[in-house]
Amino acid sequence: MNCDQSLQALVDLARGADPAGFDLVRAHLARCPSCSRRFHDEQRLTATLRALADATAANAPPQALEARLMALFDQQVAAREMAPIAPTKTRVARWMQAAAALAIVTAGAVTWLHVNRGAKPAEAPPAHARSVQDAAPSMPAPAPAARTAQPVRQATASPAAASRSQRRAAGRATNAPRTVLAEGFVPLPGAAGLPDFDHGEIVRVDIPLPRLPLYGIDIPPDAADKPVMADVLVGQDGQPRAIRLVTTGSDEAIRKGSNR
Amino acid sequence: MDDSPLTLVGDDDLMPRIAAGDRAAFAELYRRRRTEVYRFALHMSGAPAAAEDVVQDVFVIVMSAAKRFRPGRSAVAWLRGIARNCARQRLERDRTFLALDDDTQGGGYERLALNPEPVADLTKAEGIERVRKAVLGLPLHYREAIVLCDLEEMSYAEAAEAIGCAVGTVRSRVHRGRELLARKLISAAVPGTAAPKVAGGRCFA
């Protein structure tokens, strides 16, 4: 082994490694003063660096850093858990938009067909629609499209949930005359300011009895505080127009209308 | 997933837990490796504030990239690689550290040998500070090789994995870095003496 060959090995040897050819390196160092001196210098350099390493061994980041990182971790986990919801919402929104567009096109097509089929005799309206037509001059007769309208829908939501505007209108209610419809429908106090009724649906709801006066229905002073079933006539714009109590027997008329 | 206490779980097995959002696993990895990462960054930068920033950067990357950690790989090596990259990025951003000396000169050990015990004194406090500054004065790629192999006492193979180069490259950088370091220490030990410009000694024994 010559000096060039021993040079790399003696550095590794001085660093505490166990290089291959250890015996050969030792033998070379024993007979080469220059390489031996170099070896001792390397050993001292190693000791110096170890002293620096020992002096800095206790250095550590501040405790506050751990708290910051844990807070960041929590935020990231929370963000990751919320992330999958967004695309779903977007997909739902897209489907809703597509469904709305389809409904508009369908409604337009049906209207056009009815306009162009004006000579044809219209089908007999269902009981609930007929009652509106007959008894409420302020509400024009429902269009034929309403005659094929949906059957009565059961709803357990309170009327307030069905329409906030209805409640607001009730709050503004004046002493305007209330007309009781032939089929038991009472126009709601705020319905007078709404666009003319064209078509809609009847929604069955439970109403606390003490709230009925708000919707234009008088109750006995000693009426019990219990919910009663009522039908709400909702117009084409989603606004409620009239209400009737199911217990008046009008439910039979609704059932007949639905079965047609 | 393994239900062992986290203190018994290896670093590699902590990674999937961290990827799954396990807070305790992340805290465990941080407590195990924070000092090593901090010391490395401190030796590389010489500034505690920069070292703290590097530690934060490293573990922020860990929390977001844990899901990309490939099973079968060493988490420690992966972490060291991130630490090395973060430290280098930080140094490149700041460039406020000690000026680097010209490392194109060769030799230096004859001068070291002329002074009987020039390095012995360095074990004292002021000597340690001198070594610290000398390490900071090394060019970056030699500095990181010295820090990883001589201060953090990693093997050449471990350092090569952290740096992302061949083992032979690390070895030659360590040797060359030590040579430059010796020259700096001689200059510092004998004020007013420039780093020796002596060709590498050669014998034909």
Explain what this protein looks like in three dimensions:
The complex is a heterodimer of chains A (260) and B (205). Chain A is α+β, with helices and mostly antiparallel strands. Chain A has helices spanning 3-14, 22-31, 33-55, 63-82, 85-116, 127-135, 144-147, 159-162, 164-171, 250-259, and strands spanning 153-154, 186-187, 200-208, 227-235, 240-245. In chain A, strands 1-3-4-5-2 form a five-stranded mixed β-sheet, with no helix packed on it. In chain A, α1 (3-14) crosses α2 (22-31), α1 packs parallel to α3 (33-55) and α2 (22-31) crosses α3 (33-55). Residues 119-182 and 248-260 of chain A have low confidence and may be disordered. Chain B is mainly alpha-helical. Helices cover 64% and strands 0% of the residues of chain B. Chain B has helices spanning 11-19, 23-45, 48-65, 75-94, 109-114, 125-136, 140-151, 156-163, 167-189. In chain B, α2 crosses α4, α3 packs across α4 (75-94) and α4 crosses α8 (156-163). Chain B is elongated, with a radius of gyration of 20 Å. The N and C termini of chain B lie far apart (62 Å). Chains A and B meet through α1, α3 and α4 of A and α2, α3, α5, α6 and α7 of B.
Keywords:
heterodimer; A: 260 residues; alpha+beta; 10 helices; 51% helix; 11% strand; disordered C terminus; B: 205 residues; mainly alpha; 0% strand
Mean pLDDT of chain B: 79
Tally of strands of chain A:
5
In terms of DSSP E residues, the strand content of chain B is under 5%
Secondary structure: helix percent of chain A:
40-55%
Q: What's the average pLDDT of chain A?
A: 67
Strand count, sense and barrel status of the largest sheet of chain B are: none
By oligomeric state, this entry counts as heterodimer
Low-confidence sequence ranges of chain A: 119-182, 248-260
Question: What is the approximate shape of chain B?
Answer: elongated
- The helix/strand series of chain B, from N terminus to C terminus, equals HHHHHHHHH
The SS-based structural class of chain A is alpha+beta
Helix content of chain B: 55-70%
Distance between the termini of chain B: 62 Å
